[in-house]
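Researcher: Let's do a round of design. I'm pasting the structure tokens now; please hold your answer until I've finished.
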């Protein structure tokens, strides 16, 4: 297995390994449930079942809900990336790569890029369904580019975190359990469906500094000029997203590479 690669070779191998992962989707289509069916269920459930009982001042609930669903979909990418990585780590896929002339970095880069590609599908479904159901994001060229950049940055950060977690757990089922325990409650407390200021003291204190809250607040701010408040990060959501993503990437990338190299050397 190559450890040092020419940039062109690295890029070529990364794209080939990304395509390898995507080609498996037709054989296992259920792996896309978290980026296709799951956001649709949340949208329909909260918009048409709970939405009538939730009142948010100065904004329609549709314009309030869909930026939150967008952020939640990105956060759930941790679970999808972790499950796919755990499957490859524990089902012999990595063992097969050991005997191939493939760079180590290309393997993990292909995993990350493949998971990000799947998340793009989920975001497209969320945005498309939102527009069909009446979501009206007020985006200018500047705010549209800013939102695109924040989405790409958050997607990168959450995917790397998921890849690292996937290397730590023993099975995709275990990764699902970790996601349910950590990501699921954090995404709900992030102001995704109800305003943070209306929460009880303990969940509100967590939500004020929840990294997902920063992205929810920034997406709402950019698409509807709805401003959240309660903590520094909610008052400055775009800056907070950049800071959180820098922290997550700075921690997850070297940790994932170290773990991956140790696994190959074992």
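Researcher: That's everything. Go ahead.
Model: Designed sequence:
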């Amino acid at each position: 297995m190559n450890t040092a690669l020419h940039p062109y070779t690295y890029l070529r191998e990364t794209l080939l390994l990304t395509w390898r992962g995507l080609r498996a989707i037709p054989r296992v289509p259920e792996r896309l449930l978290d980026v296709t069916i799951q956001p649709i269920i949340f949208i329909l459930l909260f918009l048409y079942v709970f939405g009538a009982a939730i009142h948010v001042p100065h904004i329609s609930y549709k314009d309030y809900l869909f930026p939150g669903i967008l952020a939640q979909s990105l956060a759930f990418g941790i679970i999808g990336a972790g499950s796919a990585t755990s499957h490859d780590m524990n089902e012999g896929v990595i063992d097969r790569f050991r005997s191939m002339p493939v760079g180590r970095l290309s393997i993990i880069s292909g995993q990350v890029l493949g998971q990000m590609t799947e998340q793009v599908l989920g975001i497209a479904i969320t945005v498309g369904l939102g527009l069909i159901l009446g979501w009206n994001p007020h985006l200018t060229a500047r705010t549209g580019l800013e939102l695109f950049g924040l989405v790409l940055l958050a997607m990168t950060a959450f995917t790397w975190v998921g890849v690292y977690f996937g290397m730590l757990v023993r099975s995709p089922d275990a990764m699902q359990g970790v996601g349910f325990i950590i990501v699921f409650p954090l995404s709900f407390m992030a102001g995704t469906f109800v305003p943070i200021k209306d929460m009880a003291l303990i969940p509100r204190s967590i939500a004020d500094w929840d990294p997902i809250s920063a992205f929810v607040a920034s997406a709402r701010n950019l698409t509807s000029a709805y401003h959240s408040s309660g903590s520094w990060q909610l008052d400055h959501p775009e800056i907070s997203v950049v800071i959180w993503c820098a922290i997550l990437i700075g921690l997850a990338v070297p940790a994932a590479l170290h773990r991956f190299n140790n696994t190959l050397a074992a």
